[in-house]
């Protein structure tokens, strides 16, 4: 049985889906935020309905969202929200975009929901309860060597900017296959054994909070590029099937 936390998170994701799909048209208005990233009425409307749905059930919980920032609560629980991960895809009618909802208790991520409506993929997990894709249990792959692995990566320019491109280049060169799917979707692939590892050089917590729980509960491992645990300040990420994790981190040590 899912917890009340998960039940409400799934309801919030579905409520957001209705808004996101309704605005998925050719004439959606796009604005630029202060950091020069795009935002749409769908992003803002989706985050608003997620917050409202959760707030009705848990009025003392706090929130951290990409569009509306931090709202302090009076309990140890913090919901972390990205209403549309991959807004640029959404704007350009690339169907790889999704809603990310995570729950943190204190400093521990305990729940994740990742809903990609146009891909028909709803992934979710709670700490200790396993990971699921459209209601069916999923597990990571058992690939043991980078040269046999499919590696997914975020934007390569960020590895250059952060000084970690040599490690990324060598890993991609050694891997059996690599693809830059970007955003949440590559973590879907790792959690469900369709890919073996993800590397990203520049992220925010709302990008990766939900999928961190999902990959872990599918049997994988998630850290930053230096091998440190995920926190609200994490700015890079390595997510793997677990057995590959140390080998992939080794590419970045001293990179």
Overview of this protein structure:
The chain folds into 2 domains: 4-138, Fructose-1,6-Bisphosphatase, subunit A, domain 1 (Fructose-1,6-Bisphosphatase, Chain A, domain 1), CATH 3.30.540.10; 146-250, D-Maltodextrin-Binding Protein, domain 2 (3-Layer(aba) Sandwich), CATH 3.40.190.80. Helix 1 packs antiparallel against helix 2 (41-57) and helix 6 (185-191) packs parallel to helix 7 (205-217). It has 255 residues and is of the alpha+beta class. Strand 9 (131-133) and strand 10 (136-138) form a beta hairpin. It has 8 helices and 15 strands. An 8-stranded mixed sheet has the order 4-3-5-6-7-8-9-10, sandwiched between helices.
β-strand percent reads 25-35%
Give average pLDDT, whole number. Answer: 95
Q: How many individual β-strands? A: 15
CATH topology of the largest domain: Fructose-1,6-Bisphosphatase, Chain A, domain 1
Cα-atom radius of gyration: 17 Å
Give the full name of the CATH homologous superfamily of the largest domain.
Answer: Fructose-1,6-Bisphosphatase, subunit A, domain 1
Can you tell me the residue ranges where pLDDT is under 50 for at least 5 consecutive residues?
none
Overall structural domain count: 2
Characterize the overall form.
globular
Order of helices and strands: HEEHEEEHEEEEEEHHEHEHEEH
Spatial gap, N to C terminus: 45 Å
What's the CATH architecture of the largest domain? 2-Layer Sandwich
Q: What's the CATH first level of the largest domain? A: Alpha Beta
């Amino acid at each position: 049985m899912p917890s009340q936390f998960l039940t409400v998170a799934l309801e919030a994701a579905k409520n957001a889906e209705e808004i996101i799909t309704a605005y998925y048209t050719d004439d959606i208005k796009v604005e630029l935020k202060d950091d020069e990233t795009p935002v749409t009425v769908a992003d803002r409307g989706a985050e608003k309905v997620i917050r409202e749905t959760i707030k009705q059930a848990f009025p003392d919980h706090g929130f951290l969202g990409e569009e509306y920032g931090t709202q302090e609560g009076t309990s140890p629980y913090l919901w972390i929200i990205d209403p549309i991960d991959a807004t640029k895809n959404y704007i350009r009618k690339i169907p790889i975009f999704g809603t990310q909802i995570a729950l943190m208790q204190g400093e521990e991520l305990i729940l994740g929901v990742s809903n990609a409506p146009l891909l028909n993929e709803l992934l979710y997990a709670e700490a200790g309860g396993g990971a699921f894709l459209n209601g069916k249990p999923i597990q990571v792959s058992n690939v043991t060597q980078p040269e046999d692995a499919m590696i997914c990566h975020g934007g390569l320019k960020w590895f250059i900017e952060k000084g970690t491109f040599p490690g990324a280049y060598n890993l991609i060169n050694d891997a059996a296959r690599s693809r830059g799917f970007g955003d949440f979707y590559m973590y879907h692939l790792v959690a469900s054994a369709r890919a073996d590892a993800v590397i990203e050089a520049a992220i925010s917590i709302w990008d990766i909070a939900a999928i961190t729980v999902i990959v872990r509960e599918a049997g994988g491992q998630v850290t930053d590029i230096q091998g440190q645990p995920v926190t609200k300040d994490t700015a890079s990420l390595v997510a793997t099937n677990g057995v590959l994790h140390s080998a992939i981190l080794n590419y970045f040590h001293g990179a």
